# Entry
Amino acid sequence: MTTAARGTAMAAEMAEQPGVLARLLDRGSGIEEAAAALGADRATGFALVARGSSDHAAAYGRYLLETATGRPVSLVAPSLHTLYRIDAEYRDWIVVAVSQSGRTPEIVETTRRLGRAGAHTIAMTNDAASPLAAAADALVDLGAGEERAVPATKTVTATMLAMVLLGTCAGRLPISAEELERLPGQVADVLGHAGPAQDAAHALGDTSRLVVAARGFLYPAALECALKIRETTGVAAEAYSTADLRHGPIAAVGQDDHALVLAVAGPAADDAGRLARELADRGAHVLRMADASGADLPLPAALPELLAPIAAVVRGQQLAYALALGRGIDPDAPRGLSKVTAT
Amino acid sequence: MTTAARGTAMAAEMAEQPGVLARLLDRGSGIEEAAAALGADRATGFALVARGSSDHAAAYGRYLLETATGRPVSLVAPSLHTLYRIDAEYRDWIVVAVSQSGRTPEIVETTRRLGRAGAHTIAMTNDAASPLAAAADALVDLGAGEERAVPATKTVTATMLAMVLLGTCAGRLPISAEELERLPGQVADVLGHAGPAQDAAHALGDTSRLVVAARGFLYPAALECALKIRETTGVAAEAYSTADLRHGPIAAVGQDDHALVLAVAGPAADDAGRLARELADRGAHVLRMADASGADLPLPAALPELLAPIAAVVRGQQLAYALALGRGIDPDAPRGLSKVTAT
# Structure
């Protein structure tokens, strides 16, 4: 790959997101059928299996599914099933296994074992012909098209939207059909204004550390923003819930450290705003990603809090991309990473 | 506090751990009674509520309770209940709320709300007169004595052992009574040989970053080791499961970075060993905490894998303590932290 081509695949895949989201809304991707067939509206509970970026989409799914159903959601620890082979009992549970490639062996094996333990299993994947799709009882096909860049982008936001749609099938979410329909256009707006991400990348200078913090629904978006920055640039970006950060790790944030705080209007906004001030009081440089005016990384104002994480993840991709290019790194293929992980 | 007194409280509390663990084994701390009264052996599932170090003890509890019962365990997201106030349905679930002080307001409120949502609630705390103890249906009193140093030590290992005991009441764990009885002595052995921790602290030099990695049962111990180092020294120590680290964040580990890999004999050992080699191949300096000969930070050889995390957490405390003193920091009261967090 020549220097001129740096980041071509990642940029192209980021740009496809409005179309991918619109298609998913349009055809529903089999989610209603899968949910109805498996009895999602009367399940004892949901357990989610994932790793990496998919794990962040799963964490978002957890907030959505608990809100929709009121029932506890478990994020599965694969090693219990693949290494320790515990005698699991998952009757009447729905297991949602998330993997863009559908080929991470441990995710496939965990799904098979939980199916044998009585769970109804759904594969949420970008490859309908993958081993994961074959291992599960039902398939949610993300239909995002092939993803070539190592940092997952369009498959992450597609998975996030699929979780929203699954939530609406499993129970009730406070989101209207009109709000859902506006989402692809709002993501296009974010993508169309890359200036703030370039400015923010410039403000981060040559920092080797970054703390990313958010509360509630935006917390999974903070996890994904941190991972995207870390894997594209090598910056040690770490995400925390604002409450967890205060509970200890904030001790490591000091003068001239960098932080990124995510917030949108809603019950979590006050807490995030307070944390941003606490970090600034410690001498840190704080970037704000928010729907409020004056935000360093603006988010669409008319976006409900439950959907804001999808737009926030796109802003985070933009920041990671700008930061990588600014440092002379090819974001399509960062050092030492490949697209499918063996464990 | 004078310079000579640096770390006095943390050192004293670390040294109390064998006695605290032995007392907990001896009197059971009300766990059997609580579990029997709440029907732990026939619960639909367990949900754990915690934050900070207690959250790592809860993550360990999750591995134990899933192993013991075969049922999914959920780690509760407090914001869903305190900020978003979702309409939760927890009938026939057992909620275990963990807080050494019993005074973190959000943990208390979450426990109250889940109790009203139908859950049977257990408070696992070091203060039987705390609001958390009052809010729950049953009490597991850690009885560790007052903890004065900001970094939690004896209450963490006491909570971890309480989780083991709860696991044995809720189902079956592959640990014998003899193995449990040996634990306090093994922890005393670790505490009695601080030399390796001092050498490891020396080897870490003035690094500002550290990656800590483990798989399976030791993963929660890796989380706690990283937090202890972070809050006592300000080093940006981050913990990963070996599988998650390979799935992206390893891109940020390069030449002359520092890593700590935890492993003991058992199903997860091969994977951890492989990761240590991968990190070394990237040019990182790798410290090994293990029960194998030649480990930089040795763990007792006769310790079953399920109990090894407790000894590993103690080794991690030793390393954090040595690193803090070596950098002229008072580990009893690191900058910007207080003992009870308001959220």
Remarks:
- Chain A touches chain B through 70 residues (CB under 8 Å).
- The mean pLDDT of chain A is 92.
